[in-house]
Specification:
Largest sheet: 4 strands, antiparallel
Strand content: 15-25%
Structural class: alpha+beta
Order of helices and strands: HHEEEEEEEEHHHEEHHEEH
Pfam families: cNMP_binding, HTH_Crp_2
CATH superfamily of the largest domain: Jelly Rolls
CATH topology of the largest domain: Jelly Rolls
Helix content: 25-40%
Protein name: Crp/Fnr family transcriptional regulator
InterPro entries: cNMP-bd_dom (IPR000595), cNMP-bd_dom_sf (IPR018490), Env_Response_Regulators (IPR050397), HTH_CRP (IPR012318), RmlC-like_jellyroll (IPR014710), WH-like_DNA-bd_sf (IPR036388), WH_DNA-bd_sf (IPR036390)
Distance between the termini: 38 Å
Shape: globular
Keywords: DNA-binding, Transcription, Transcription regulation
GO molecular function: DNA binding; DNA-binding transcription factor activity
Number of helices: 8
Number of domains: 2
CATH class of the largest domain: Mainly Beta
């Protein structure tokens, strides 16, 4: 990845919490103290169980957030891209990271320390209010995901995962703009790699999707949505 220096004032990520609040004079002192760095593909920048290091914001790239379950089985709990926040699970409530996070491609990240983030929350009420709404929405999503995993069959969970990835990252040249292995899809859908391979093969035969190497392209989004509409 070409070396870039993220500058908040010229950042194009309008969905970023920091960018949204740049108009506030109090924010300038914190912007000057942020740390930015490049995380190489597959490199971890948050390690589950390690001390928390504040919040991370994706300037450019893609990230997966993972939680370890019983028997060491990993569950992908979130996929993030430009402007998204990473590391909010357990922030300010735990001294240890409750998740791990790694780059799905070379990614530029901005990091604000625990101390600076707590200062922002105490001194910038507009930011605190927006973050509270964000947590409420994430809680709602988590509850919906638990319900879907309990009620959907394997095929429906794989379809739901593919639709989510398509919605989050979009398609270019007919395929989703994300390199995810079949194991990654299984970890996100709460199933096994073998079951994902079988469902993908079935969806291909039905001309609902296509594959180009590891990449997947959705050919009939509406029909796929109709299969899981009762769960929405």
């Amino acid at each position: 990845m070409k070396k870039e220096t993220p500058i908040c004032d010229s950042c194009s990520n309008e969905n970023c919490f920091i960018k949204k609040h740049l108009y506030l004079e109090q924010m300038q002192q914190y912007i000057e103290k942020k740390n930015s760095f490049v995380c190489k593909k597959s490199q971890q920048f948050i390690i589950e169980g390690a001390p928390t290091q504040g919040l991370y914001f994706v300037y450019k790239g893609k990230v997966k957030t993972v939680k370890t379950g019983i028997y060491g089985r990993e569950q992908i709990v979130r996929l993030t891209t430009n402007g998204d926040v990473v590391g909010f699970r357990g922030f300010a409530t735990s001294k240890r990271c409750l998740i791990s996070a790694s780059a799905l491609e070379d990614t530029i990240l901005c990091n604000f320390s625990n101390e600076d983030m707590l200062d922002i929350l105490k001194n910038v009420p507009e930011f605190t209010f927006d973050l509270m709404l964000f947590y409420a929405e994430e809680l709602n999503k988590s509850e919906n995901n638990i319900r879907k995993i309990a009620q959907m069959n394997v095929r429906e969970r794989v379809i739901d995962t593919l639709l989510y990835i398509h919605r989050k990252f979009g398609q270019s040249k007919g395929v989703i703009e994300l390199d995810l292995s079949r194991r990654d899809i299984a970890d996100f859908a709460g199933t096994t790699e073998e079951q994902v391979i079988r469902v993908i093969s079935s969806l291909k035969k039905e001309i609902l999707i296509k594959t180009v190497g590891k990449k997947i392209g959705l050919l009939n989004v509406e029909k796929m949505r109709s299969e899981i509409i009762e769960h929405k």
